[in-house]
Structure formats: structure tokens, C-alpha cells
Amino acid sequence: MQLGMIGLGRMGSNMTARLERDGHDVRTYDPGVPSTAETLEELRDQLDAPRAFWMMVPAGKITEDTFESLLGLAAPGDSIVDGGNSNFHDSQRRYAEAAAKGIHFVDVGVSGGIWGLKEGYCLMAGGEDEPVGRLEPVFLSLAPADGYAHVGPSGAGHFVKMVHNGIEYGLMQAYAEGFEVMERSEFDLDLHEIAGIWRYGSVVRSWLLELLYLAFEAEGSHLE
Fold it and tell me: How far apart, in whole angstroms, are the C-alpha atoms of residue 121 and residue 108?
């Protein structure tokens, strides 16, 4: 499938590489790094109708400005995807603004960080069935097996990602407090070892715990 990727930071560049590796034709635009297009207009002209534009830029003003520019460039039937961490209320508004011009808007919560190129990205899509279905080959290439779902209508993707992030931050806080309690206890505990064994069989095992274990390991190597 053909796609225009806007934003080639750590996430966007790795997503582009994963898509290209799976045979997709990805055209790119980022004013800060080498891209296939030097402007959004040129990116539009590099894509066949109906076009699909994927915004992978920071939430807030950059997303809003890019979205408004695309509204002025896209044609009816084209799709705009927001893969950033936008407020789901903004996504619902953008959906309505796009729909008024016959343009599809899909909000996609993306989780995977810099490891997504290898492991895949968990994708939570919100929007109408037709554009989501048309974009599904891209979603399936980006996600690992069973790591993608069309979770609901416009705004649902970013709403689910918001809750996901709240859980993530809560887990990180819980791990931080728990390991601090152990570090300050009367016992001489090997926190690296404990993080290691908790990865297997424990009900608190998670990818975040894997990363904590690797951080302890890297700190130990540095001290040596």
C-alpha cells in the first residue's frame, strides 16, 4: 500500500522502515531530515488517489498546523491519520472538520517506542469502518500478531491510548516506589537479581520490568 509519512523522528522513521520492509510504498516529509518530498504539496503529488497521509508529529500546535495544511491540500476521499498522542476531543473535532470536506480522519494510538521497528507497534484505531478497513494493510504491517484493533468510532483510538498511558505511568511509579523501599530496607538486596526473577512467573512481570532489569544491568556494566 502507498502512504505518506509526515514526521521522521524516532517513531516515524522506524515505522517507515518497518512498512518499507513489508513491501509498502512510503513517501515521506520532514523538514528536518532527508525526505522524498520537500513540502506537503510535493508529498501530495507523490501519492496516488485516494491518498493516505500519516501524521507522526508531536501533539499540540504542530499536529494542528499540519492537519490544517493537509485539509487545504487533500481531496475528497483522501485519509488523514493522526498517530500521535492527541487529546481525543481534538480528534473528534478534526474528524468533523475533515468530514465536512469529504476527507476521512482516523486517530490511531501507537505504543512501542524505539523498539517498535523490531517488536512491532500496538495500534488502537478510531474512526469509520471504510477508511480504517482501507488502511488495515498498513496497520497489520506495523503491529505484531494480535497487536492491532479497530477500537471504536472517531476519538476512540486516542481515548484508549490516553488510558493506556495512565496505566503505564502508574506502573512505572509503582516499580519506582517498590524498588526504593527495597533499596532503603535493612536487607542488602540485589535489586538487579530481584528484577530478573520477577520477570518469570510473577504477576507483576511486564515489559516495563524487562526494561528496568536492563537498566540495572547497564548500570552494573558501567560501574565495572
Answer: 11
pTM over 0.85: yes
Cβ 91 vs Cβ 99: under 8 Å: no
Q: Are 157 and 124 in contact (CB under 8 A)?
A: yes
Q: What is the pLDDT of residues 77-109, one digit of tens each?
A: 999 999 999 999 999 999 999 999 999 999 999
CA distance 197 to 81: 41
- Which residue stretches of the chain have pLDDT < 50? 221-224
The dihedral over CA atoms of 161, 163, 166, 171, expressed in degrees to the nearest 10, equals -90
Alpha helices in the chain (DSSP H): 10-21, 40-46, 61-73, 88-99, 116-119, 129-142, 156-183, 191-197, 207-223
The catalytic residues are 161, 168
